[in-house]
Design brief:
Number of strands: 0
Helix content: 55-70%
Shape: globular
Radius of gyration: 23 Å
């Protein structure tokens, strides 16, 4: 008995319709844009950490650096807080536990964003940090409600939801780790 060859199966799609498994130019561009945003936000967290730790002179003078005994939270929370939460923020300004949590958060979020790993956790932590910074000064200076803190918090959520760590990052490798497969919320 001889095998009868079958003609290849072809799929007809509408002109311009994307084919399954084929990334369009727009999809590729979107991946790169989101990767760039991820790296930019990661840099903002890293820079804040480095400047507050070492007093690089941009926002923090050397004498006020964390390594020189300065507090990374005291100035902004004690003297910049306005609005309905000002009392709360002034009360915790400069305390050792707040300084340590703030700096740990800045460093961890920066590393996660720059490496493209743990974006879900980084998005939640960074979102909380951004919303808290937004509540320090209410209402915002240039708008009755919205400012860059809320926009950046939303961007972090978008980065986590779109697997932005896979492009220009280690997201794919991270996702293959056994612990991440077991607990995908760590993606």
């Amino acid at each position: 008995m001889t095998a009868i060859s079958q003609p290849p199966v072809t799929r007809r799609t509408a002109p311009g319709a994307p084919q399954l498994g084929v990334e369009s130019t727009a999809q590729k561009a979107t991946r790169y844009v989101f990767a760039g945003i991820r790296l930019a936000l990661g840099w903002t967290f890293l820079w804040a950490f480095l400047d507050k730790t070492f007093g690089l002179g941009h926002e923090t003078e050397s004498k006020a650096a964390w390594i020189n005994g300065g507090s990374p939270t005291k100035g902004f929370l004690a003297f910049g807080a306005e609005g309905p939460f000002a009392g709360f923020y002034r009360a915790i300004a400069g305390t050792a536990w707040v300084d340590a949590l703030f700096m740990l958060g800045l460093a961890a979020i920066a590393i996660a964003l720059l490496a493209g790993v743990g974006l879900r956790v980084a998005a939640v932590a960074g979102g909380i940090l951004y919303v808290m910074m937004w509540t320090v000064v209410l209402p915002p200076e240039n708008n009755p409600f919205l400012d860059d803190h809320l926009i950046n918090a939303a961007m972090l959520a978008g980065l986590a939801l779109t697997a932005a760590g896979d492009t220009w990052g280690f997201g794919r490798m991270w996702a293959r780790l056994p612990i991440i497969r077991r607990w995908p919320w760590l993606k």
